[in-house]
Amino acid sequence: MQHALDTAIELESLEAGRFVGATSPSYANMVGPFGGTTSAVLLKAALQHPDVLGAPISLTVNFASPLVDGSFEIVANPVRTNRSTQHWILQLTQGGIVAATATAVFAVRRETWSAPEVLMPSDLPSALDLICTPVEVSLPWVHCYDMRFVNGEMRFDGQEQSNSNSQLWVRDEPPRPLDFASLAAICDCFFPRIFIRRRVLAPIGTVSLTTYFHADAAMLTAQGDRHVLGCARAVNYRNGYYDQSAEVWGDGGQLLASTHQIVYFRD
Amino acid sequence: MQHALDTAIELESLEAGRFVGATSPSYANMVGPFGGTTSAVLLKAALQHPDVLGAPISLTVNFASPLVDGSFEIVANPVRTNRSTQHWILQLTQGGIVAATATAVFAVRRETWSAPEVLMPSDLPSALDLICTPVEVSLPWVHCYDMRFVNGEMRFDGQEQSNSNSQLWVRDEPPRPLDFASLAAICDCFFPRIFIRRRVLAPIGTVSLTTYFHADAAMLTAQGDRHVLGCARAVNYRNGYYDQSAEVWGDGGQLLASTHQIVYFRD
Question: Which of A171, A189, B57, B238 has a Cα at 20 to 30 A from B126?
Answer without folding.
Answer: B57
